[in-house]
Amino acid sequence: MSTTTIVDVVGTPMDRVDGRLKVTGAATYPIDVNPPGVAYAVLVGSTVTSGRILHIAVDAAERAPGVLAVITHVNAPPLAHAPATGRMGDPIGPQPLPPFQSDAVLHYGQHVAMVVAETREEANAAAALIEVTYQRDAPVLAYEDPRASRVSHPWTPDYVRGDVPSAFAAADVRINQTYTTSANTNNPIGLFATVAVWDGDVLTVHDTTQHPHGVRDMLAIAFGVDPASVRVLAPFVGGAFGAGLRAWPHVTLAALAARITRRPVKLVLTRAQMFTSVGHRPKTIQQLSIGASGDGQLTAIEHVSTSPIGMADELINLITYGTPHAYACPNVSTHAIQVRQSIPIPGWMRAPGEAEGSFALESAIDELSYALGIDPIELRVRNHAHVHPDSGLPWSSNALLDCYRQGAERFGWSARTPQPRSMRNQGQLVGFGMARGALFAYQPPCQAIASIRRDGTAFVRSGATDIGPGPSTVMTMLAADCLGVPIERVRFGLGDSAMPRAPQEGGSGLTGALGNAVHATCVSLVRAFVDLVHDDEGSPLKGCRLDGITVRDGGMQITDDPVRFETYADILTRHRLDELTIEGESAPPGETSSATMIVQAGRFIPYTAPSTGTRAHAGGYAAHFVEVHVDPDLGTVRVARVVSAVDGGRILNPKTARSQIIGGIAMGIGMALLEDTVSDRTGRLATTSLAEYVVAVNADVRDVDVLFVGDPDPMTPLGTKGIGELAIAGMAAAIANAVYHATGTRIRSLPISIEKMLGHESASAGTA
Ligand code: MOS
């Protein structure tokens, strides 16, 4: 008898299914798409920060060689503004205002003109001939400016628990500090690109996006066409980190250029335009007040953030969102203030809000540990939120204490001497620091479709994207396990709005949303095969039930009788079917149907969700441990070593998951030490290239170790928690805390630049 093989690849470290395509250059990113007859669009950005366009001289540009069209607010058609929320309730976030609809200039770099020409060089040359005359108004750049209006937003309500003022006044130990974070800009190496082709009223767009369906909906509304006649393709995206979550004005402009010139049009943002056109992590000022008893019990936390929002934009970053539930503290209040400023409109950047908020909170907790003389880990353990601080419900899963313990063990925390400036190595000051990281649970609805074909292959697809975390790989693994089809015979398709609707790849929510959808759809597909053979006299499986079969080797067997086995291909052939195709979906946690099954080692086990109201749905947790080496003379900070212990629930592919955490750590190092989007006092950007805006490179990311702890989370069949953003949450604080431990100097302002280190070093000279 031939051996039987159960497909059981989920949970094993697998290479990316698209790795070879990517490293050989065979993967087609939006920038690689070149339809026949393609023309090139180039954008002209405002050189002023605030004001009006009085006149645009376009004659010379229009007469320049190769020019097909010059488009400005003067000749652009009306374009409608898309609403904030997608059709299935998946919040891609508020869309920016459509471009070229008025003469108002609201920020530096705002698109004010577009040239379309036969070649990119001709478009660039013509764009240089355009002369814009502006009325310059004084930009709103200071929070104190009386014209700077404050925006309240339903996403950032004030939070109050207990009585913070009284508890703070009565505390034995108090910390009250201001922390600031700099503006950071997503800089994926791949420049954002859009290629648009109209065929009558049918629009096809290749776009650097994290949400094909969101871009489709926006374009349909902007141009007043049926969403079904717009197709957005993004099978390969490249890095995006949040910059691809919104449907930006340049995407609309590429489609507009194609419509006006009746040509396929390609538009690639320049590196400088990446700083002004696809959002950024806005700067923050944060006030943290913490009160504690002498034995280290937190009694009061107050967290107030101030951050900017664009002059006519609605995108909010949730700076204080994580603070209320971070610790078991009876008195907590948070207040998030957004102030309109004449800045390029902010967007989202990996762990938006939480990366900034955790820097302030976890720095302040570290300061408290020194004030109390309690080890930073011990202080956090003593104040661990064993239950949800509001509801009192137990968490659905929470292995944060294991993150602290196992991470400390792996890192070798016990070698740390508590006194700042007490550890040295070859003339370098050595510091050990740590911080807590967390991210909320989030899983929007998602649809998928799955087919098994007569040749025995499986094809599963959904209109999601893969910006690097690896859903292409993980979904292929999931489908293989669920269907019992060898992984090399399974293909997962994505990045196409003609596929079933998927949410944005954001909020660390896609693996859960898409994974549960793929899983549910594949279970339904097997169920369809079970139904097909149920009354089939020709099948050895006649009369079988889903709970009595095992999927393996591209088919199904009666679990207790391995001889009663048949391949899907044989079933399809006998029934004269080319394929069997089933649509399915996942619902947000708490709305999962009771008929859901989960697949374990080829068998179908009923999934039981926790009873409603018995568990608080937990997100992911992490504990980050950092060793820094600081040169006492030069002020240079090197992150010598990082250990991140992560509770990500069930880890579907430890290899791609580990890569996610390493990537988050790298961005955390950049945020802590390097990244700073700088404007001058007129609001113009000073950092517009990777020479001026410095990101962490391989030399900055040295010894990194990742360990996963915890158990599958029971709130969804798959048991995952989002991990894409976990590593950067808390990472900047862990580094700043290590810098303090190394030097005795507390830097409360990111990035921890050499200039700041030297300033502080000279202030504390003589203690070295
Ligand atoms: Mo992320 S900022 O949710 O892509």
Shape summary: globular
Please report the total strand number as a whole number.
30
- Proportion in β-strands: 25-35%
Largest sheet: 7 strands, mixed
Rg, Å, rounded: 27 Å
Q: Span from first to last CA?
A: 76 Å
Question: Which ligands does the model contain, each kind named once?
Answer: dioxothiomolybdenum(VI) ion
Structural class: alpha+beta
How are strands sequenced across the largest beta sheet? Answer: 3-5-1-13-10-11-12
Instruction: Outline the low-pLDDT stretches.
Output: 761-768
Mean of all residue-level pLDDT scores: 95
Helix content: 10-25%
Number of helices: 16
Distinctive features:
768 residues; alpha+beta; seven-stranded mixed beta sheet; six-stranded mixed beta sheet; 16 helices; 30 strands; disordered C terminus; binds dioxothiomolybdenum(VI) ion
